[in-house]
Amino acid sequence: MIDAKEANLRYHDAAARDYDAKWSISFDERCIEYVRERAERMLPRRRYGRVLEVGVGTGFFLLNLWQAGFVEEAHATDLSLGMLAACQANADRLGCPLRAAAGDAERLPYADGSFDLVVGHAFLHHLPDYAGALAELARVLRRGGALLIAGEPTRLGDRIAGVAKRAASAGMRLAERLRPGLLGPDPTPPATDQERTLRELEWHVDLHTFEPSELVRDADRAGVIDVRVETDELAAGVFGWAVRTIEAGARPGLLDERWAWFAYRNWRRLYRFDRNVLSRFVPKRAFYNLLLYGERPLTSTDGSHC
Ligand SMILES: C[S@@+](CC[C@H](N)C(=O)[O-])C[C@H]1O[C@@H](n2cnc3c(N)ncnc32)[C@H](O)[C@@H]1O
Fold it and tell me: How far is the CA of 171 from the centre of ligand 1 (A)?
């Protein structure tokens, strides 16, 4: 039995080098806009002093939030030193004076009340004790400070994404029979230690999906108040996962720049359709992506300020 935290550490160390390319992460207007849109939707303020991202990876959320003007002082932590090094390199390229420290989200290396805003993107579902980590995130917030979690998979949204991935795979196999040469070669044994680690651990790192109402309850128990959950990406999620499945299976060189623009433009259209139309009558739990906002209370439960 592989220890889940050890698996996460080794997997993300191995993933760090190619992570931005694999997930189309960039630090240009496309990704700044993605992050800004979510921050404007969830956060009551447009600027925060000391901001920490936990499970920062290569810096997608924090560095784009910084570029969007929400962050005065950027701090980053991650279990994986490989990810932190990639994040530091991205920050240096952007001219962002980042303070990075290796750390486990379940035992953060910061004093109580250190930050005005704590954010986390696509990391909570990797933590064995995610409920305990929520209490840690609250602990390092100053009183009245804000918590923003985004990019976490909902339980039902994840099942729907699974259907989209299987349908896209079946479509690819059918297309290959009609027009051979579309698919890439069958997988060969891993050529490097990095590839071996990624393949071995791929199924051991995603530990949770979330029911929105249960996560609200967990945040509440962690001492976070004024908790609000939103979700997005239903049609956009189905489309996005189908696109990723096709990109992973296609013959190298088959999909060019025009495909990338086709995928991005249509994903944006569907994202707006989800927000403006589907979100009016489809339950939150069916959308793929979960976002949570909350605050650390101004006074402790015994009524004292500190
Ligand atoms: C899916 S990546 C997301 C990275 C980044 N936030 C983003 O959105 O691109 C998950 C990140 O969580 C980190 N992680 C996993 N378990 C962790 C833990 N216990 N404490 C801190 N970080 C952890 C991984 O090393 C990885 O960088």
Answer: 32
